[in-house]
Write a structure and sequence with these properties.
Order of helices and strands of chain A: EEEEEEEEEEEEEEHHEEHH
Mean pLDDT of chain A: 91
Number of domains of chain A: 3
CATH architecture of chain B: 2-Layer Sandwich
Low-confidence stretches of chain A: none
Oligomer: heterodimer
Helix content of chain B: 25-40%
Number of strands of chain B: 10
Strand content of chain B: 25-35%
Strand order of the largest sheet of chain B: 1-2-3-5-4
CATH class of chain B: Alpha Beta
Structural class of chain A: alpha+beta
Shape of chain B: globular
Number of strands of chain A: 16
CATH superfamily of chain B: GHMP Kinase, N-terminal domain
Number of helices of chain B: 4
Distance between the termini of chain B: 65 Å
Chain lengths: 230, 248
Amino acid sequence: MPVFFENREIVTPGDLLAEGEYEAGRNTYRDDSRVYACKLGLVEYKGRTVNVVALNTFYVPSVGDLVIGKIVEVNLHGWTVDINSPYLATLRPSEAFNKPFKPQRNELSSILDIGDIIQAKVIAFDRTRNPLLTIREPGLGKITHGQIVKVSPAKIPRIIGRKGSMISMLKRETRCGITVGQNGLIHVYGRNPEDERIAVLAIKKIELEAHTSGLTDRVTEMISKERGEE
Amino acid sequence: MTKEVRLVNKKGIRTDGRKPDELRPIKLEVGILSNADGSAYIEQGKNKILAAVYGPREVHPRHLALPDKALLRCRYHMAPFSVQERKSPAPSRREVELSKVIREALEPAIFLERFPRTSIDLFIEVLQADGGTRVAGITVASLALADAGLPMRDLVAACAAGKADGYIVLDLNDIEDKEGTADVPVAYMPSLNAVGLLQMDGQLTPEEFEQAFNLAIEGCKRIYELQKQALKAKYLAIKEAVEEAEEK
């Protein structure tokens, strides 16, 4: 039962990763007894499972995900939200109000209008229908201050880090609040623009160098250097 | 033929100095357009071709959406300045046909069924043409698709072989294409050992056809290696830069 690459080696779609009793994990597929990569990424052999950590992907919604999106349409019966994925999401009035919604009386655009940025949670999605969102939870809703940074959704796990190590370091060092949407949009809000600028720079650096090791230290170093130049 | 053109000389060397089974020099670059979700660029001899991928995204117009899989739309287009005589920018009969065969060569490589009701839009823009643009177009397009992060069964490599002056030659250039006796473009997925495009223009005996086909497959395998290198190059460059800075 051979494997054909070393751990964390870069593989391309169609590369034969393993043969025999292996299970095809993320970004791989099986053909008979062979496991192939289906995306460009870093290969990971974990016991019997073969995974590929993709270097670039787009966001596919999944129930329970926190996402950041932009209102692109206001209808009579809800909002259409661009969540940086192949599918547009819907936010229904019942998921935005605590009280019953009457289209005769309430104007939806007075709550959220086109161009507004919201933080929301995915409550339903399958291949037959577009994703549904909710903002009826603490912390969710319209974003009114700070900045939004867009990164590739493939880099989100790296920005959060193992058990949140990277993100807690970022928050501490940049003195900013940071909310990471699983769809690749990140909300950064600090006490002054300078803090936010540094946080954005750090996030961009993590995105670019996500596939290298020793990144946390390099980012910490970069932040303190930027601070020194103030 | 109005005048005699010598395509292969007595020593078996072709007009551009290549041996019969030699590819033109190829340069591949990935991720060069920031506004597209995926992009790639190829120079193969004097060919210069750009490919850009958008999607998966909402289908417009809506009624074209497929309920069970993504819709792959492909546009092969030659720029007006890509050939000697100005080409009308309107899509010609030939371009419409090539768009279709290129799409059909790439469709089996992508897991389209994972993204129902979406579209993947692929644009192949020929900036300079020198024979074999359909195969070079497939080669770059599959790189652009992989760059966009689409799940794929394999990369698609494409290459042509043909007959010129009685020789079976690989990777025809413009003169060999026009003055030669036959042209066999092939698109191939090496890991799956599957052919996605096979056409023939001109005359070949069954034996010659087989020889040309095998030569084209051989060419595809060489191009496949270049494709893999090109995809990795972008990330390896960053990694090396980081490691170098680390050592200082």
